[in-house]
């Protein structure tokens, strides 16, 4: 078995209880026990323990209770002293549930180290609890094959006093004794404790094994009850600035966005086919670059001002002039639980010279029947505002589960488009609210699909300029006409 080849010498009490060792002191070394002839441990290259196994389903069935030995240990002064070091107030430590939560988190930390330590040389990816970063920093020279590391946010980001203004804006955290991450002004090199150890780990590994470590991530965690720990962007950006640029990524999303931001001018984006929804303002940087390239004095002046205030931006304007704009050709945006705002229009404007395919699927909210509460419906999405001519755009596919309102000039800006699909699921309308789009000249158009509101607003004169059109689909579905006076 796997555990037969892991040495258990001087284990922590938490680990000893979990492994049902009779006594931390009296139990003989595991090396003296009979071992399985198959050493599974020697073949492990990726050690990424799921913390939820320890925190959510630690005990095998819902009806089972923690062993008496565990319940007895968590009431000891030794254990409670460890808990107090996590920042909980003494009165919260009177709760058995809180103490058990600590036990499970402590076990996750110990188990991660216990399994990883014998095989560090062979690991290519691993998870490291943030609170244990100093442990792994001490053995970083053994991790020559490590390519991907994920830090588990089992602890708040720690700032040095001069770089953090601690404010407790919410009473929910009043017992935790921790600073609100958003209240701290982060400065490079001014982290403390485990946070500083995490950054130093990445720095030292990159120094010892240049370009070997490709990613270092810190996804949000809910390992503690009633706490959702998020790593601030300042820390993520500092980690990613140490790493090399992304190697020809095929997507940009939450998982790799900060590493792209750390190296925007040296990241090869020619293979990118998917861009996940990244939130309002995600592409303002591209809009600004486009305006500067097009000779916007105001944008150039703004960038010059930012360079003066932030030395790390250095020669951004000079690099833009040398390398040009990002040559993005294909975009696929899939909306999830947050509505799209300005991303589509910013992409169309910023990458107008190279964009060939634009796919947008918006599924946030639905347009229910007329008896539903109107206040619960998301607002209509407007697409096409601020667009300029897109000479290389060939395919447009935009679907909205509610109302999709296209700008009157949208198709006018796409003279060489071959395939267009603009659809929504609108179920009610009034004639006075329909604003017909301007007729467009589309000599290359072969396929045209319009459904819902886009079908109502499409200008039929556009069809006079579509000699290659082979497929035309237009429908308004089971829509309900609502007079304005109702």
Automatic annotation (TrEMBL):
Organism: Linnemannia gamsii
Protein name according to UniProt: Uncharacterized protein
Region (Disordered): 169-190
């Amino acid at each position: 078995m796997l555990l037969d080849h892991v040495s258990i010498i001087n284990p922590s009490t938490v680990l000893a209880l979990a492994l049902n060792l009779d006594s931390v002191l009296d139990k003989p070394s595991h090396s003296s026990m009979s071992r399985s002839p198959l050493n599974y441990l020697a073949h492990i290259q990726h050690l990424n323990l799921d913390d939820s196994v320890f925190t959510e389903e630690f005990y095998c069935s819902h009806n089972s209770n923690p062993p008496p030995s565990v319940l007895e240990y968590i009431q000891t002064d030794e254990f409670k002293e460890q808990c107090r070091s996590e920042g909980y107030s003494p009165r919260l430590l009177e709760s058995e549930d809180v103490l058990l939560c600590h036990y499970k988190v402590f076990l996750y930390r110990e188990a991660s180290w216990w399994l990883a330590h014998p095989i560090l040389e062979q690991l290519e990816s691993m998870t490291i609890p943030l609170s244990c970063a100093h442990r792994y920093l001490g053995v970083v020279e053994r991790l020559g094959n490590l390519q991907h590391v994920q830090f588990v946010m089992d602890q708040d980001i720690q700032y040095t006093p001069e770089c953090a203004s601690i404010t407790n804006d919410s009473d929910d955290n009043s017992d935790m004794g921790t600073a609100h991450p958003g209240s701290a002004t982060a400065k490079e090199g001014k982290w403390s404790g485990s946070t500083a150890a995490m950054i130093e780990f990445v720095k030292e590994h990159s120094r010892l094994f240049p370009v070997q470590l490709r990613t270092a991530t810190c996804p949000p965690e809910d390992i503690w009850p009633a706490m959702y720990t998020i790593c601030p962007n300042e820390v993520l950006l500092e980690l990613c600035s140490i790493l090399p640029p992304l190697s020809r990524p095929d997507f940009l999303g939450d998982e790799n966005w900060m590493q792209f931001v750390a190296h925007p001018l040296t990241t090869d984006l020619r293979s990118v086919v998917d861009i996940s929804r990244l939130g309002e303002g995600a592409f303002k940087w591209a809009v600004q670059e486009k305006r500067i390239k097009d000779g916007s004095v105001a944008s150039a002046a703004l960038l010059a001002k930012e360079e003066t205030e932030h030395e790390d931006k250095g020669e951004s304007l000079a690099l833009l002039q040398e390398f040009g704009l990002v040559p993005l050709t294909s975009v696929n945006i899939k909306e999830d639980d947050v509505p799209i705002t300005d991303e589509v229009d910013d992409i169309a404007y910023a990458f107008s010279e190279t964009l060939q395919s634009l796919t947008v699927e918006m599924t946030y909210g639905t347009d229910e029947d007329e008896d539903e509460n109107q206040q619960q419906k998301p607002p209509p999405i407007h697409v096409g505002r601020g667009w300029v001519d897109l000479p290389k755009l060939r395919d447009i596919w935009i679907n909205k589960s509610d109302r999709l309102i296209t700008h009157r000039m949208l198709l006018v800006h796409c003279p060489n488009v071959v395939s267009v699909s603009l659809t929504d699921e609108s179920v009610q309308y009034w004639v006075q609210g329909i604003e017909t789009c301007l007729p467009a000249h589309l000599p290359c158009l072969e396929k045209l699909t319009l459904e819902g509101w886009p079908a109502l607003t499409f200008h039929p004169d556009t069809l006079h300029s579509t000699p290659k059109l082979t497929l035309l689909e237009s429908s308004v579905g089971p829509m309900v006409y609502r007079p304005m006076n109702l």
